[in-house]
Each structure stands twice: as C-alpha cells, then as structure tokens.
Fold this protein.
Amino acid sequence: MNAILALAVLLLAGGAPVTVIVLPGGEGGIGFDDLRFSLEMHKLLVPAGRTGRLDLVDPKTHGVEAIAGFSGTRESARGHSQGTTSADSGEGLIFASDRSDRTLVTVDAATRRIVARAKLGGGPDYVRWVAPLREVWVSEPDRKVVETFRLEGKSPPTLTQAGTIEVLDGPESLEIDPTRRKAYANTWHDATIAIDLDSRAKVAHWANQCEGARGLALDTGRGLAFVGCREGKAVALDVDHGGAVLGSASTAKGVDIIAFGGKLSHLYVPGGSDASLTVVGVGPRGKLDVLGAMPTAPDAHCVAVDDDGNAYVCDPGKGRLLVLRDPYPTSR
C-alpha cells in the first residue's frame, strides 16, 4: 500500500520549517515508541501501533509504504501497548514486534509481506538485529530479560528461541555494537550495562548520572554511548574506558528515545513534556554542548535521524511524523 501525504508548513512556536508526513490510518493518534533508520534499506522504519501497519518512509521523497498484517484497532489509546512498536532490519528482512499478540514478526523486505511469526515469552519493547550472531534480540521489561532468537533458513526464514538474558531493574532500551561484540541497555534508574554478545554475560555496569534512564544511542566509531534521562538530560559514556562520563547536557524534559547522527555528530533528544527537540553537539572526546532547540508537538518523545542530517520526530496526538532539518553546523 502506498501513500504520500507530505507538506511543508511552519511551526508557529519558532518559525522553523518542518515537513509533516501523515501516516495511513493515523488520524486520531498513534501510540508511537521506537523509530529507526535502516541503512541497509535506506528507509525509516515506523512501527505504527494501533493502525496494524509497519510504515516505511523514503527519506528523499517522503513517500510511505505500509506493510499490513499486524494487530490493530480503530480506537486510539494512550501509550504504546498495541500493535507493532519496534522494528529493525538485517539480511533482507525486517523484524518487528506485535505487542497485542506478543509475537516477533518477520517481513520479507523485498515483497513487503509477513513471512514468519515467533511467540514471545513476555511483552516486547525493543527489537534489535544482532548481525554478528545472525540473531534477533527482544527486550521484555515485564520479565526483566532480553529474549534471543536465532535466524535459520531462507525460504522461508524461521526464528528459533535461543535463550534469555536477565537484566535486573530493566531492560530499558537496547542497542548493538557489532565492532565490540557488545549490547548495551539501561536500567530504569541510574545505570547502563554492557552484555557480551558471545557469552550472553553482563560484563559491565556503569553509573550514568540519570534519575530515570530513558533512551540509548551509540557512536561506535568513537566508543561512545549516549543515555537520555527522563528528567531532562543527556550523558555521554566512554564504553572503552570503564563507562567514564565524558559529558552531559541539559535538555527538554520527558525524554524517552534519543538518536545520534554521525554526519553532523549531533545527538537528538526530544522532550515529550516540553514539546521540544534539543540538538546537542558531540565533541571529539565526548563533550556535549547544547546547540539549540526546536519546537515539536505534545508528547513528541521519539526520534530517528537519517544519513543526511534530517531528524524525524513522532507526533502521537496527530498520528504523523515531523521532519526537521538540522540547522546547526557539524560538531566534528
């Protein structure tokens, strides 16, 4: 299903130009959670919750392709407890959650069709492709575990449950670092942990200076992990030197999901409580400096960034995306 409903408007609060992408079935709101830019597909993956669709957005044209077959409902509920809310891609496949029926769904990226489902042991939060292992990891906060699945076969592919990894007081967020063969997650409070991909063992536990850790992003080239703090802060950790805090910056409040853009070396931190996106410059050694802020929308708590410096911020109340062009110079 193709849809393209994009238009340029002005955000009245600041006069900054923004492109609005309306998603199919989003009228009345979407309980967004995870957004992710796939370098492999060169598409933005937008799990569209209650609409029963996973939307793929072209960063050049802003065209939208909707993949149906997920759980949906006509009623707009607050929060993100319905349908698909997280997705990632790898080896020509898309892996996405379905919170309503607690399944991990596999989509053929070429045909845009669902080709397999695997039952989850608990309610899913983040879905991440682990390329070095050919596995998919799913965080399940209600069970305090990350559930792991092994990708097998090709026609059709199957996902076989491979085990669980316990994360006490978590897991909040989940990011994979193939270079170091590590995964990173937060606790719900003041720590970030590192997990060895091969042994599945927790190998580090770092204080991150948050009261409520929310959101995680990586700069694998420089060995940096960025943590968002719900209370309105971003922190940079050195994953190669004991999780040392290299920098911190105050941001808008109500932080949930953050994103790092390597082209400009900027960290994007939306604050849902303040309806604002804080843009943070990341120095060569991890120092963080606030470059400015752009108005967004109420409860706009999630963001992804493409490889050309555009930030995509969710607008849950209106079921759409706001595309903001970063006006700040590179931090490198």
Q: What stands out?
A: Residues 1-14 have pLDDT under 50 and may be disordered. The CA atoms of residues 223 and 283 lie 13 Å apart.
